[in-house]
Amino acid sequence: MKTKNTFIPFLIMIVVSLALAASFFLPYASVTAETRAVIEKYPDEIFFPEVEMAAKDAADMSLLNFFNIYSYMAGNNISVDVATTCVVMISLLALFTVLIILFVILKRPVPIIVFTLLGFGVFFLLGTDFQMRKVIGAGKYDFSIAYFIFLIGFIVIFACAIWLLVLKIKDKKTAKQISSQN
Fold first, then answer.
1. CA-to-CA distance for 146 and 96, rounded, in angstroms?
2. Number of other CB atoms surrounding residue 25 within 10 Å
3. pLDDT digit string (tens) for 85-136?
4. Using CA atoms, how far apart are residues 102 and 33, in angstroms rounded to an integer?
5. 3-state SS of the chain?
């Protein structure tokens, strides 16, 4: 006998996993107030000379923007090792997000847990890489909304997947007890 109490963790995971997917288009890093003042003064100045990005376009950078910048850099032999590493990390984060959504739809808690942990690991490495190379946190950029959605999202999905797993185990035990009584 299956219980219907799996709906709540399922619904939470659907909403949060879709928020993770949307976060690829939301600002992952935003310029600091000091840098924003300069950008507003000179919006058409080149901010990233490597990719000829204007300052106004670089104020709020999504993961998709970073992916495009690093793809361009890798393709044009500009810091190829760093650029390739960032492209791979962002791609892996996207892949794990898609797999999380897939397994949430299928209500498979174990793969959700596995891909959430893998996704969180890549997310952590990417954020640490950006901080160590001073892409973020060196006075020009700070983490923005997408970073925090990923951080909170992975934690919520992990917790809900464990909740769903416990409910499924309880359902199996209940089903065994019922079948053994008959």
1. 16
2. 12
3. 999 999 999 999 999 999 999 999 999 999 999 999 999 999 999 999 988 8
4. 39
5. CCCCCCHHHHHHHHHHHHHHHHCCCCEEEEECHHHHHHHHHCCCCEEECCCCEEHHHHCEEEHHHHHHHHHHHHHCCCCHHHHHHHHHHHHHHHHHHHHHHHHHHCCCHHHHHHHHHHHHHHHHHHHHHHHHCCCCCCCCEEECHHHHHHHHHHHHHHHHHHHHHHHHHHHHHHHHHHHHHC
Q: Which residues contact 89 (CB under 8 A, 6 or more apart)?
A: 122, 125, 126, 129
Query: How would you write the pLDDT of the chain (182 residues) with one tens digit per residue?
Result: 455 688 999 999 999 999 999 999 999 999 888 888 888 888 888 777 766 778 888 889 999 999 999 998 888 888 889 999 999 999 999 999 999 999 999 999 999 999 999 999 999 999 999 999 988 877 788 999 999 999 999 999 999 999 999 999 998 888 888 888 86
